[in-house]
Amino acid sequence: MARAFVFVLDSFGIGGAADAAEFGDEGANTFAHIADACRSGKADRPGLRNGPLLLPNMTALGLGQAAHIASGYDFGPASAPLLPSSFHGAAQEISSGKDTPSGHWEIAALPMRFGWGRFPDTVPAFPPALTEAMIREGNVPGILGNCHSDGMAAIEIFGEEHIATGKPICYTSVDSVLQIAAHEEHFGLDRLYEFCRIVRRLCDPLKIGRVIARPFLGETADTFKRTANRRDYAVSPPEPTLLDRITEAHGRVLAVGKIGDIFAHRGVTTLRKAAGNMAMFDQALEAMKEAIDGDFVFANFVDFDSEFGHRRDPAGYAAALEAFDCRLPEALALLKQGDLFVLTADHGNDPTWRGTDHTRERIPLIGLAPGLTGGSAGLRTTFSDIGETVAEHLGIGPGKYGTSFYGDIGGHA
Ligand SMILES: O=P(O)(O)O[C@H]1O[C@H](CO)[C@@H](O)[C@H]1O
Ligand SMILES: [Mn+2]
Ligand SMILES: [Mn+2]
What is the pTM of this model? Predict the structure, then answer.
């Protein structure tokens, strides 16, 4: 028996996806372009950060090697010594989407190769029958938006009209999402959640992955601010995931952050939530301390994606990575012999790229397995290899989709 920990740095892609061109993302590379921006002084921000990207702890786990495996990128500090028992590699996604559920479900050994519905980039974006049903069943006077949009732009453009009319702001993106922004006080937070539950049901036949509540506060376009009360209403995974397999084997899944929502709370034993990466890190440490043999701690750090990737803010993203890296030793210090600790990502979100959407990229898999030899896991053909490695580590039989790399890093023969 043993314990396993997977921390997902939401959107921390490392480029090189073989199918990036099919997504309009050829050349996108979240990590490399942040590092390049830092190196050339383009990610300096007084009072926030300066100079080259410094990630000594992730570098010691093999981030540089992982980047090189994924795209040939040379991070430079990759020549620094690696920690004993550390391992590194990169993985290609096989799911058809580059969204958060696709990435996480594939990590949890359930790739989604087909099947998500999406709304076209037209105005209106939603089919009239859906819009009519949302208004009628949701008992609202109409909807605003009805288009593809960046979330902050949607609030800036429609927020004041929303307050005046009570019409929720409904928008989408290239992902399989229908997002609903509404004012926490004028519209009401509970009412927004209730409206989202109704829209969730209406979206089921359209195979929309998530309906997302995006509450905000403020009174004018220049003062609107989204709050931490975002809530995702996801469809249930269509087959058992690693989380179900672990709980069936009587292990516990200790989820941190968005993980509960992403898996529609299936296979989740306990859930810890917090606002902001640092508070989330505190929660992840608490989960690590609580974990006993057979348990799996699965944590998501969403700020990288929502605060910096979608906002196309390389300096902010770099600062968030550096802050995360600084805290990593606290997590590593909690590891015992026989534990498996993995840092990875669910997709890319290159803050130097066009638009505001995710980018199709490979993901890093770096970590520490005290007691094992560690080394290179190479380039994996699916994110599911991470889930299968966790399964093998926890003594759970193999699933249908991925291949464990546990043997490559010195695990069970
Ligand atoms: O611009 P915001 O509202 O953050 O939207 C983003 O959030 C959605 C869910 O993560 C993505 O599909 C993307 O559109
Ligand atoms: Mn994500
Ligand atoms: Mn996102």
Answer: 0.93
